[in-house]
Write a structure and sequence with these properties.
Elements lengths: L21 E4 L10 E20 L5 E20 L6 E4 L11 H13 L6 E6 L10 H17 L4 H11 L3 H6 L3 E5 L3 E4 L8 E6 L6 H12 L22 H10 L2 H7 L1 E2 L2 H7 L2 H11 L4 E4 L6 E5 L2 H11 L5 E8 L3
Bound molecules: cytidine-5'-monophosphate.
Length: about 350
């Protein structure tokens, strides 16, 4: 956990790394003469590895994950000083609007912690990251709000922003941090990894199912204690094999820029549990592998399955075939920290 290639994020008091955020003064509507619009980009994340180390006294689980940011991103338009009640809207109907959206929670926490009143706030989300996909779409949007607000008001140190992020959700600190990173604890103990090598492409396929994250954590606890694994209705699930990722092997592959070794080291402790219920996971992986992927894996608790390719051509060809099986298929590259 030490060494020059890593930089511990927690406790890092550097000013927030500035994201692609633009502030535009609104001069069109005289009643909103003081309004400002911030444009922000929220990148999706993939888990190259995800290991559940054990349950903690606070009910959460200690995790160990290698995470990366990918180019598939949501776009946010954050309007301050509207003089109207707060709103959060999204161009995709299935996403919670208003107070139920993590962006609202993030903005509320920021304003309370900074002791400010933006005199009206509205957030519009253009959704591109698959929802309920294990790509931290909602968390990334929330992180983009924290980053944009602090980029504009410059009122809080980075460490405080990280604390607020964790209050919003376990994945939000990583989304603030971005890029290739090792995440531990609930996901907030972040260590920077070497940026990923060039020439790496991902196919992201979202099959049509969603799983409950707390339920999967319960199932993994049962599996570890050799109890029968049941679904919410109490029906026994055939006990799936356990997967424990080799995090060190993945870190070493990234350090060496070895795409083949990265492909081999892709692993997710939740994958056998999800695949036992939804065989499409294995089917998607097998198609990706026969079509030239160096490795394929579930991200987070799913449902997105991704393949890693060393050529854009192979990735695009594979994505085309997968469109017959999944309504939502994308190709993406990795992106460095915002
Ligand atoms: O923090 P967040 O609200 O995203 O977590 C959702 C749920 O996932 C938690 O209520 C908890 O059941 C589970 N979780 C966990 N350990 C973590 C992260 C999440 O048990 N490190």
């Amino acid at each position: 956990m030490t060494g020059p290639r890593r930089q511990q994020a927690t406790g890092n008091r550097q000013q927030a790394t500035v994201p692609p955020v633009a502030a535009i003064m609104d001069r069109h509507n005289p009643s909103e003469s003081a309004a400002v619009t911030l444009e922000a980009v929220a990148y999706g994340k993939l888990n190259l590895t995800l290991d559940v180390l054990g349950k903690r006294a606070d009910g959460y689980h200690d995790l160990e994950m290698v995470m990366i940011s990918v180019s598939l991103a949501d776009r946010l338009s954050i309007r301050l000083g509207t003089g109207l009640p707060w709103t959060v809207t999204c161009d995709r109907g299935s996403i919670p609007q208003g107070e139920g959206n993590l962006c609202w929670k993030a903005a509320r926490r920021y304003c309370d912690a900074a002791g400010l009143d933006p005199k009206g706030l509205s957030i519009q989300i253009q959704k591109n990251i698959p929802a309920q996909g294990g790509m931290a779409g909602g968390s990334s949007d929330a992180a983009a709000v924290l980053r944009a607000l602090n980029g504009h008001y410059k009122l809080l140190p980075e460490q405080k922003l990280m604390e607020l992020a964790l209050e919003v959700g376990s994945d939000v600190p990583y989304c603030l941090f971005g890029g290739a990173a090792l995440a531990r604890g609930r996901g907030e103990l972040l260590t920077r990894l070497r940026p990923l090598p060039e020439g790496l492409w991902f196919v992201l396929a979202r099959p049509d199912f969603s799983v409950s994250t707390p339920e999967l954590f319960r199932e993994i606890d049962a599996l570890r204690h050799c109890e029968p694994v049941t679904d919410v209705t109490g029906v026994a699930i055939r006990s799936p094999a356990q997967v424990r990722p080799d995090t060190a092997a993945m870190e070493s592959a990234i350090l060496r820029g070895d795409l083949e070794a990265m492909g081999k080291a892709l692993a997710n402790a939740f994958e056998p549990l999800v695949a036992a219920r939804y065989p499409v996971v294995k089917e998607l992986k097998s198609i990706m592998l026969t079509q030239g992927a160096l490795g394929a894996c579930l991200t987070g608790t799913g449902s997105v399955v991704f393949g890693l390719y060393n050529s854009k051509f192979k990735a695009a060809a594979s994505a085309l075939t997968l469109k017959d099986l999944c309504a939502e298929v994308h190709i993406a590259t990795s992106v460095p920290r915002p």
